[in-house]
Design brief:
heterodimer, A: 116 residues, mainly beta, seven-stranded mixed β-sheet, four-stranded antiparallel β-sheet, B: 110 residues, six-stranded mixed β-sheet, 61% strand, globular
Chain lengths: 116, 110
């Protein structure tokens, strides 16, 4: 089982460029989410989805877009990168239907993004 | 404003010591509190707590939740160098929102 797979692991962008961080999970999880982790700020929720075709905003959604066309994939798009988006990004998933019993979030390995 | 506060921010102990990590929260519509361990990369799950006063235990780690006073503690007994990591506390609210604390950085010296 691969779990949660994120690509790329590292990326350097120039201000104004666009890119997509990919996230895929093979655990048939309904819930998927994106976080950014910054020093002194902890993990902050960007966007999340509870199933294909359903997305919603988290705590810090500005500057990011998401879509959920399949259960497995949840890409995060930066349309016009800014230096403030320099961060480590984590994708996480979990079961939504059985969340009362198993609330654990499974995390990907992270993607380190630098915007110059 | 929903928030999760962890203390201390960092801690240095010697092998064999016992440590207590704290997590307090102010979150509307609390569902559960989770503890994670983060070494170099992805956070890994330790515990999920939903009920007050019931201790969860796994080896040398244990955790308990107090929903009246809005806090949780994570205890690690007989610490080892492999326990060195950042420990994250997260609270899940309704509508699938998770709020994380900034973490406690634990360093265990041989």
């Amino acid at each position: 089982n691969a779990g949660v797979t994120q690509t790329p692991k590292f990326q350097v962008l120039k201000t104004g460029q666009s890119m997509t961080l990919q996230c895929a999970q093979d655990m048939n999880h309904e819930y998927m989410s994106w976080y950014r982790q910054d020093p002194g700020m902890g993990l902050r929720l960007i966007h999340y989805s509870v199933g294909a075709g359903i997305t919603d905003q988290g705590e810090v959604p500005n500057g990011y877009n998401v879509s959920r066309s399949t259960t497995e994939d949840f890409p995060l798009r930066l349309l016009s990168a800014a230096p403030s988006q320099t961060s480590v990004y984590f994708c996480a998933s979990r079961t939504h239907r059985d969340r009362e019993k198993t609330g654990e979030l499974f995390f990907g390995e992270g993607s380190r993004l630098t915007v110059l | 404003e929903d928030k999760v506060v962890q203390s201390p921010l960092s801690l240095v102990v010697h092998e064999g010591d016992t440590v207590t990590l704290n997590c307090s929260y102010e979150v509307t519509n609390f569902r559960s509190l989770l503890w994670y361990k983060q070494e170099k990369k992805a956070p890994t799950f330790l515990f999920m707590l939903t009920s007050s006063g019931i201790e969860k235990k796994s080896g040398r780690l244990s955790s308990i939740l107090d929903k009246k006073e809005l806090f949780s503690i994570l205890n690690i007994t007989a610490t080892q160098t492999g326990d060195s990591a950042i420990y994250l506390c997260a609270v899940e609210a309704f509508q699938n929102q998770f709020y994380f604390g900034t973490g406690t950085s634990l360093t265990v010296i041989p």
